Amino acid sequence: MSKTRSTHWYSVLLVTCLASAACPLTASDGRAPLGPTGASVPQEGPEAPGNLRCEYLKNPLGIDVRQPRFAWVLDHSERAQKQSAYQILVATQPALLAQDKGDQWDSGQVESGDSTQVVYNGRPLESGHTYYWKVRAWDKGGSAGPYSSTAQFEMGLLSPEEWKGQWIGGANQLRTEFQLSSAPERARAYICGLGYYELRINGRKVGRNVLDPGFTTFDKRVLYSTYDVTPYLRVGANAVGVMLGQGWYGSRALMLQMKIEMKGAERTVISNASSWKVHPGPIASDSVYDGEIYDATQETPGWDAPGIDDAGWTPAQAVKPPGGVLSAEMMPPIRVVDTLVPRTLSSPHPGVYVYDLGQNFSGWAQLRVRGPRGTRVQLRFAELLYDNGTINRENLEAAKARDIYVLRGDDGGEVFEPHFTYHGFRYVEVTGYPGTPGLDSLRGRVVHSAVEPAGNFAASKPILNQIQRLIRWGQSTNLHSIPTDCDQRNERQGWMGDAQVTAEEAMLNFDMAAFYTNFIRDIRDVQGPDGTITDTVPHRYGQRPADPAWGTAYPLITWYMYQQNGDRRILEENYDGLKKYVEFLRSRAPDNVLRYSYYGDWVSIVKTPGALVSDFYYCWDVQILAKIAELLDKSADAQAYSRLATDIQNAFNHEFFDPKTGNYANGTQTANTLPLYLDIVPEDARDEVSGNLTNDIVYTHDTHVTTGFIGVKYLLPLLTRMGHSDLAYELATQTTYPSWGFMAENGATTLWELWQNKTGPAMNSHNHPMFGSLGAWFYQALAGIDNQPGTAGYEHIRIEPRIVRDLAWASGTVRTVRGTVSSSWTHSPGVVTLEVEIPVNSDAQVVLPHVDPLTEVTVKEGERVIWEQGRFVPGAPGISAGKLERGAYVFDVGSGRYSFKLTGQ
Ligand code: BGC
Q1: Which phi-psi region, left, alpha or beta, contains residue 568 (left: φ > 0; alpha: ψ -120 to 50)?
Q2: What does the pLDDT read at residue 43?
Q3: Ligand 1 pocket: which of 490, 534, 547, 602 to mutate (most atoms <8 Å of CB)?
C-alpha cells in the first residue's frame, strides 16, 4: 500500500470512528483491541508478558553480570490472577527464538510465581555476544499465555585480559584512521574516556550520552560504555576522534576498543600510542565547577573524518592507568533530557543580558550567535537575582560557573554548547554578545541521569502539587550518575546523608533500581578493610569514618532496594560489607551507645544532640542487618544481631530518655521522633513521648517543623502511623516559615538547602533535594501505596489512603517491578470513592477509612455491594474477604482494577 493510500485509509477510518463511535481499533500497544467505547476488550486468559527487563534495564547493551536477572510484567483478562509457571527462552539468533527455540537457555516450564529477579541459568554467556529472549507465563488455572515479544541483552567485555588497548592521552583531541575492506555487519565500541569523553566517528558524535562515564572511585573502578557503531562505519577509510575532558578525574585518559565484524573478516581497533595522534582542540579549559572555554578559532575541521593532513598532530602518549577495574556502566546514562525556552530576557546594564529560564535545573545553555571571528561571548550562571535584575552568584562559593565561547565567524551564525561541564541555574547572564541577543538566541538544556519517571502523585490541594513539582525537579537534576547534594556550587557530591533520606522518594518518583545498584557498588568500593565508609561516595569530602547518619546510606539504600524490588541479590552481595560496617560501628560503641557525630540533624532549626541521631542509626543499622541475616538464612547472625539491637535499644533509652519529662534528650521534634519511629520507646512511655512531640509541633511551634533533614524524613510517616495524618497534612501544606510551602510560595522551583529564605553567601543552595524526602509520604500515606508490613517488591500490597482534612482527592501511581500500582480517592461528606489497580501476580489489602460520622455504611465495588449491615458480602470477582478493622473497611483483593464506593447515612 502506498503511503498516500495508507494515510487516506487511516483518515477515512478515523472519520468513520468519530462519527459512529463504534468501530474496533487496535490499541496502540498492539495488544487488546478496543471496544465500542474505546475501552479495551480483554482477550481471554493471560496476555503476553510486557516490559521485559534484564538487570533492571531495557535491552541493555554491554552488561558484565554473568548471570543476569530477568523481569516481566503480566496482564490478564481476569481479576485475582497469578503466575503459576514461566518459561524463558534465550537464543543466539532472533530466528531461532521465532521458532520458539532457546539454544542458549530454555528454562522449560518452571513452576514458580517469580516474575522478577529470575536468574539466568543457561549456558555461559560470552563477551560481546548479543542474546535474544522472550518469556511466557501460565496463570493460576494453568493456562499458558502467548510469548512476549523479543527483547535482547548484550554482554560487555567480561574479563580484563580482553582489553587489548592502552590508556593514552597527551592532549584533549585524539584520533586514528583505519581501512575496512568490506562493509561492516556488526560493530561495537567499548570506551572509557576519563574524565569525560565525546566519541566521534566519521564526523558524527556517537550516541546520546553526555558527561560519560559516571563518577566513580577511579582507583577502584572505572566505567565503560558500549555503543553499536555499525551505522557510523563504511567500506574504505574511517576515522575515530575522541575529545577528552577532565571531569571528576581531573586528567585525561582514553581506553577504547572497537570490534568490527564483516563478512568473513573481523577487525579490532584499539587505543594505543603507536596508531593514535593528538592535537589540542578548541576546548581551552574545562572544569565541572568552573565551566568551559571553547575557542572555535582553534577547531581543526575534519579531524574526526578520514583524510585530513595530520602534519601538526603528534603521537599519543601512554598515560598512567586510573588503577580501577573496567566495569560496564549499567545504569541510565547522563543525557540532555529536555530543552527549555527562556521566559524573559532583560538588560539590567548596557551590554549585559539576563535570561530567565523559569526553572532551576542542572545542565547548560545553548547559544546561537553571529558575529566576527574571535568575538568572545561569556555566559554566567546563577540561581538567584538581585533586586536590580543582575545575577546573584554569592551562593556558588568558589565555582566560576561560566562558559566562554570564542566565535569562528561563520556567515550563517553558529551554535555553542559546552561538552564537559554542567551548571545548576535558572538565570543566564550573557556578555560580549555581538549585537543584541533575542529570546531565541538561548535555550536551556536540561542534563542529568536519564532515569525514567516511575510515579505520579497529584492531589486537590494546589500547594501539594507545587511541592511535588519542586521535589521532582530537585531530585532528577541531582542525579548525575550518583545522587548529588546540589548542582551549582563547588560541591555536587554524593553526600550519603542526603542520599539516604531521599532514596525512597526517588524510587517512587523514578525508576532508580539500576542507578542505586551502581551507587551501592560505589559505596562498597570506598569501604576500608576496617569496615569504615565515607561521608561522600565517591570519597571527596567529609571525614573518615562517615558520620553514622551518613554511613547509614549503605544499609538503608540496600534495604530500600530490597523493599522496592524484592532484590535478594543486592542483600547477598552486600551482606559481608554491611556486617563489616556494623562491626565497625560496634567497635566505636563499647557500652552500646554510639556517640560520635559530625553533622547530626543537619540544617535543623532547633538542635538535637548528634549522639542521639548517631545512636538511632546504629540501632536501626543493626536491626536491618539482623533482618537481612534472617532473609539469607544466616540464623546465628540473625539471632546475634537482634540481641545486639535489643541491647542498643536499652542503652539508647537509658542514655537519652528522661522519665521525669517524658522526653528524649532535649525534647526536640527530632529527638522524640527518632525513637518513636523505630518503635524502641518503652511501652509505658509511648503516649507521653508522642504527646510531647505533637504538643511541641502544635503549641510550641504553631504547627511547624523545627527539624533538619534527618528528623523530617521520619516525622510525617510517624505522625501518620500514630493516627495523626491530619497533623502531618497540616505540616505538609503549611506555607509560613519553616515549611515546604514557604519555599514554594517564595519563588522556589526546586527545594532549598535551608528552610530559611536566604540569598546571601555560603551554604545556601537553591537546589538541594534532601527535604524532598516528604515525597515518599505523598505516595505511602496520602495515596496510601505501600508493601504490606514485612513483605517486599509489591507482591503483597497495602492500599491505605489517608483521607485528611479538606483534601477532596489524591491520586498516586507507581510503576513497580511487578507492574502498575495505583490508588485514587475522592472524598465528599458521606462518600468516599477509591479506584485501585493491582498488577497481576500481586495481591492487596485495600483499606477504606471510615472518615465521616456515618451509620449504615455500604461499600460497593462497581455495581456490586460488598459491605452491608456490618458484614462483608462475598461474591465480587477478585475480592476474597472483608472485615472491619480499627474503624476501617479492609478488603483482600487480587490483581485487577477496582472501583470502590463507600456511602452511609
Ligand atoms: C552538603 C550537605 C551535606 C553536608 C554534610 C553540605 O555541604 O551540601 O547536604 O550532607 O555538607 O554536612
Answers
A1: alpha
A2: 64
A3: 602
